[in-house]
Amino acid sequence: MTANIELLGWKVSGLRCPDHEVNLCKPNSSIPFAISLIQMPNGTGKTTTLNLLRATLSGAAENWGEKEILELRRGKDGNPKGLFIVDLKVDGDKLTFELTINF
Description:
This protein is α+β, with helices and mostly antiparallel strands. Helices cover 17% and strands 32% of the residues. It has helices spanning 46-58, 66-70, and strands spanning 5-13, 20-23, 81-90, 93-102. Strands 2-1-3-4 form a four-stranded antiparallel sheet, covered by helices on one side. Strand 3 (81-90) and strand 4 form a beta hairpin. The longest helix is centred in the middle third of the chain and has 13 residues, at 46-58. It is globular. The termini are far apart. 14% of the residues are buried.
């Protein structure tokens, strides 16, 4: 049996990319647009976001070592943790994954 999975959006805070929130749904709705284009300038988190999505949804983040974790830290920022939240709809039910990173 195949599940219908839709990406609704994500939120990033306290990591090396700028804090941001992306909502891929139609206004005042939890229905995602059929097509979404994400365009961001260099250095604003495209690759970091893709890596966080992969690691959060696959569970690979559980196996990250100190090196992988510290690479996500924002420069010399003294922030003790970072947060990545991804919202999905799976077979019509909303599902949220949260990855908290303690530096």
